[in-house]
Predict the structure.
Amino acid sequence: MKYATTINDKTYLIEINDDQHVVVDGKTYRIDLAAGSGQALYSLLIDNRSFEAFVDEGDVEGDLRVLMRGDLYDVKVVDERAARLAKSVGGSVAETGDYHLKAPMPGLVVSVPVTEGQAVNKGDILVILESMKMQNELKSLRAGTVTRVKTKGGDSVEQNQVLVTVSG
């Protein structure tokens, strides 16, 4: 599995090959990771170098705070599929006007849990899309009102097809 991991604003591509090897930005490392019993303390050997770290989960899934050797690191871990989804949706969204949620990939709409006229908050699920046998929750990138729903459960959609419009 591949992960995009951002540590204090620098992003690394990490691939976990097996229980004893990881690849970080193309370089392979031999590792041994052990968790302390019932604690947030981890022991990590990387190429025979020993590290201990306290890991605290943040409020958002994938956000971590890591204390290692007296330094605190803000870490965000996103699996490769989620990173591709986020990139295809786009970075920033205007706070006013229409926001068009587009399909990040071709797939089958599983459900649309919103209706026209419904108020939504940033992070609310607008569409559940199945692609490559995985269900993806497509969320609103801002608060507003659903003004158009252009799909329904069971519809096949193409990449970049507009699914839902939110106005704010």
About this structure: The CA atoms of residues 5 and 77 lie 5 Å apart. The mean pLDDT is 84. The longest helix spans residues 80-89.
